[in-house]
Amino acid sequence: MRPVIFLLAAAVSAVLAAAPAPPRYTRSAAAYAPPAVTLVDARGERVPLATVLDSPEPVFLQFIFTTCPSICPLLTSTLSAAREELGEGVRMVSISIDPEFDTPARLREYAQRFKAGPQWWFLTGSREDVAAVQKAFGAYRVNKMSHEPLTFLRLAPGQPWVRLAGPVTGLELAAEYRRLAAR
To answer: Which secondary structure element, helix H or strand E, spans residue 51, and what is its range?
Structure first.
């Protein structure tokens, strides 16, 4: 009887391993209205958020902080992998949710770790302005350690944002972009 149970268990395991795993994230679309704030980029220059987000190219947006021990490096790696998959025709935006610590110099160091190119903006600003942006995207948490792994994608100005809640891989993020672009 044991060999039969073992063979049955092995067969079920093989079938489950071959089946595609369901996404670990949820997808929704919404029309977010980012606030009219001015943030600071990794070079230390003040830049209106609208200048960064109202790009004619697709925009990927995440909220991170450079000392995060868990999801932020994963989120940033995801953007890096998606950029490699999609090429330079997309804009990446990472906004620090720890503006007291994440100075432009720290953001530059963090960006270098992930080989960010000129199409990738790392932004910080006042606590109030950063919180206003998070609130506009439904991503605000009082404690930075409790923030969610969120990625926002918009194909072009005036189009809705796609919100991906949960861990997403670079390939999944590239596939989400292609799904939008195919419409």
So the answer is: helix 49-53
